[in-house]
Design brief:
This protein is mainly α. It is 55% helix and 5% strand. Strand 1 and strand 2 form a beta hairpin. The radius of gyration is 17 Å and the shape is globular.
Length: 176
Amino acid sequence: MINDNKTEVWLRGPLNDIPSLLQPVAHALLQAKEEITGLMENFPEELLWEKPAGLASPGFHLQHLSGVLNRLFTYAKGEQLNQQQLKQLASEGKPDANLTVYDLIKTIDRQIDEAISQLAKTDESTLTETRVVGRAQLPSTVIGLYVHAAEHTMRHIGQLLVTVRVLSAKNLQYKL
């Protein structure tokens, strides 16, 4: 696999140990990891919880990205959320002066690494198995949860990009 960070992850070739049908999910998650790292490099801590024009803050997106991956991959395992996960969900987007950009990026990195590990352990024959989501027990499948995790992650990367650029325009010291 090519790893020059200029070529998008999906064009670098197959990932070792990832089932063929899950390669696009893994590629999207690894692309997100790289984009977050580059986008948030040198981002001012004082802007982490800013909500320009009512948009969600960068801090929210960073918390939500790791949280949603954790939750969707839990459902894909056939499990329901535990109290810790519910507590994390309730805290998403609430400003926390103890959290730094670095802390949030490291949390996302760990969560993506765990997700990639879970993908590697997934038997392709289980991908169409039914899974239930949330208290309402809404129906999905293993592959449905994995694909949604990748799609949802990339959607928030786009939103994070816009928010960071809007904030950077207000703060001339920050350069993308």
